[in-house]
Amino acid sequence: LAKTTQPISMDSYEGQEVNITCSHNNIATNDYITWYQQFPSQGPRFIIQGYKTKVTNEVASLFIPADRKSSTLSLPRVSLSDTAVYYCLVGDGAAGNKLTFGGGTRVLVKP
Amino acid sequence: DTAVSQTPKYLVTQMGNDKSIKCEQNLGHDTMYWYKQDSKKFLKIMFSYNNKELIINETVPNRFSPKSPDKAHLNLHINSLELGDSAVYFCASSQLGSGANVLTFGAGSRLTVL
């Protein structure tokens, strides 16, 4: 199972773009890359998923280079409410896939 | 309407007691999970069921016993509770396939063992 490595924490200011990079050197051919957001006292919430190149939705963008050994979650123009822990996961979606969350990245958005 | 609901949200009990946490999902998903989040905020998978069949059973003490009466429900029973069991337990569900990495989590059940 591919292991992921993320920075422990990041600080930002309102209105800035936040980019969180996740390393997954052992990603397998069939693995997808998925990002979650977790607020205090809540369960993680799906943000975005991708396989290669770039994926964008109303919340974030996900950039995946050709070798797929890393991925970058981009949060445009963050607000205070984006303060949360962000987790990167990789997995192939098959039965028995032990989707393992790493330590996550604590993002603190300051006024 | 809540997609994945867990009860109770808070549970405070004494060491040695037995307790259960219930989980229900109304998303029509075929796979359900139990995760444990400790004080350091690491989320660790404990169990996973697919269509009522146990498919993931991580290294969890035998005191923890999941039960899935149908694919919309996954309950967790814990016997002889210990201090180290104090954590937040999250139930989640997904649909196997390309969306299988897309888990929908419940709000969590915070268990405190005194």
What can you tell me about this protein's structure?
The complex is a heterodimer of chains A (111) and B (114). Chain A is globular and about 40 Å long. In chain A, strand 6 and strand 7 form a beta hairpin. Chain A is built from no helices and 9 strands. With 111 residues, chain A is mostly beta strands. In chain A, the strands form 2 sheets. A 5-stranded mixed β-sheet of chain A has the order 1-9-8-3-4, with no helix packed on it. In chain A, strands 2-7-6-5 form a 4-stranded antiparallel β-sheet, with no helix packed on it. Chain B is mostly beta strands. Chain B is built from no helices and 11 strands. In chain B, the strands form 2 sheets. In chain B, strands 2, 4, 5, 6, 9, 10 and 11 form a 7-stranded mixed β-sheet that branches. In chain B, strand 5 and strand 6 form a beta hairpin. The mean pLDDT of chain B is 91. The chains are: A mainly beta (111), B mainly beta (114). The interface between A and B is medium-sized, with 27 and 30 residues.
